[in-house]
Amino acid sequence: MVKKRNAPSGGFGAGSSSKMRKTANSPKFYAVRHGREPGVYSTYDECQAQTTGFPGAKFKSFPTREDAQAFVAGHENPSADKPKFYAVAVGHVPGIYHTWDEAQPQVTEVSGPKHKRFNTQEDAEDFIRQHASPETCRRLGLSLEKTQEYTGAAFEPVETSTRKVKAEPAPRPKAAPRATPRAEPNHEINGNVLRIWTDGSSLANGQAGSRAGLGVYFGPNDERNLAERLPGEPQTNQRAELMAILRALEIAPSTQDVEIVSDSQYSIKCVTQWGPGWEQNGWRTAAGGEVKNKDLLFYLGEDFGRWF
């Protein structure tokens, strides 16, 4: 179920010091795109000399030389053209996002979210290293630094999909008995059903050089818990979510009923709604296009007994 969510108060970087208003003495850079001699000038008089009486003159002032040079080069709004990196260290799916619309659902309705907007990928990654758990950093493919201070990021799945066609919210239990090794398939949890949490995420999802990772959680101190990089290409959120479910089913005893807890609506709907129809249609969408991630979906169909 999809809910509209409002941005948390304060937005990204809430709690940081507020920006000071610019004073009248702040330097300005005057960009002349169309004029007698296009370029960047330090005073309005210089700018005016290049534009007054020039047909179709185009000029604008900027607070930084970099933005002024970008305007001369043809960018209408240089600051808006710069990429933004929204780091979510504690949230539903930690990672780095490029728009607020992508990041907002990951921090809404989360207890103690940690998130901030940055101008560079490197700064965003450093923020996650500082505030996320080591497990989250490994899942995202981030090397752990010796100076990292773990602040208690939580793995917070919110919805489930099961082999019994079940998809509903299910909170993580505060405590659970240590899971038994695979060699003991009669181990029972929650009424003959083994509950497993899965998660996947991608840094710079959909961009060149993206890196994805996945995690599988059986319970506290369970030796089967894992966090690893997503193999193969492309390195996307959706493939990481699907691969996490596949890995969970590979590890779980084949004779054990399993409940997969996932926050991925895409994965849940693939298994419970879309998969059977796509397979019957030769792995083509209703519009005739090729289904993405069909290689992983095919094996999920096998693990779920050709769906339900």
Automatic annotation (TrEMBL):
Residues 1-30, 157-186 are annotated as: Disordered. It holds the Pfam family RNase_H. Keywords: Endonuclease, Hydrolase, Magnesium, Metal-binding, Nuclease. Residues 161-171 have a biased composition (Basic and acidic residues). It catalyses: Endonucleolytic cleavage to 5'-phosphomonoester. Transmembrane segments: none annotated. Its EC number is 3.1.26.4. The keyword Hydrolase applies. One of its GO terms (biological process) is DNA replication, removal of RNA primer. GO terms for molecular function: magnesium ion binding; nucleic acid binding; RNA-DNA hybrid ribonuclease activity. Its cofactor is Mg(2+). Residues 190-308 form the RNase H type-1 domain. Belongs to the RNase H family. Endonuclease that specifically degrades the RNA of RNA-DNA hybrids. This is Ribonuclease H.
